[in-house]
Input
Amino acid sequence: MTLIGFLVLLLIAAICGAVGQSLAGYDLGGCLVSIVVGFIGAFIGLWVSGKMGLPRFFEINIEGKPFPVIWAVLGSVIFTLIMALIRRAFVGRNRF
Output
């Protein structure tokens, strides 16, 4: 994979992670966190779709590597909600 392909992949993962966090209504962090959330969301989304027998659709191919955009966004929503619940359990509702 070339540098340009890798940067495009990071950009798409950041967008998917940011959209997933926006849909969940909870922000975990900045741009680097959005990239990580996007990649984790892609893994979670593909796992959920595989377990439920759902098809892969709207995949973007970057130098022969497919990136599932819809499943990355849905997985990012799931991951963000889980992280929000864990944070609320440990930190509590009232933060200063």
In short: The two ends are 45 Å apart (CA to CA). The helical segments are 3-24, 31-52, 69-91. The chain has a mean pLDDT of 89. The first strand starts at residue 59 and ends at 62.
